[in-house]
Amino acid sequence: MLPWREHDDPQKEHVTVWTVFPTSTNYFDPSPAPFMVNYIVDDLDALLDRLKEEGVKIDAKRMNESYGRFAWIYDLDGNKIELWQPPSAKP
User: Which of 10, 23, 77, 87 could pair with 5 as two cysteines, CB 3.0-4.6 Å apart?
Assistant: First the structure.
């Protein structure tokens, strides 16, 4: 875990997590890549609406947890990308 603070608001603390998964994981499926990038977003719903308008492939699965909301999209090569809206972001 790598802690960091926002440049414009140093009171806001965040953590970047780098995690190694076992080779047997199916968490990245159906992506062909053995890894996934996770982006922090401020407004997941608005971003997904915009990406849909742009023709981005969006996974129908959503996850709502106490530590944030998650959605997944795919790049042009079929690699899965995770979008995470922390609880402190916009509702």
Answer: 10
The pLDDT tens digits for 12-21 are 887 777 788 8
pTM of the full structure: 0.79
CA distance 63 to 72: 10
What are the residue ranges in the chain where pLDDT is below 70?
89-91
Report which DSSP code applies to 52.
H
Helix (H) and strand (E) counts for the chain? 1, 6
21-45 burial: b if 16+ Cβ within 10 Å, else e: eeeeeeebeebeeeeeeeeebeebe
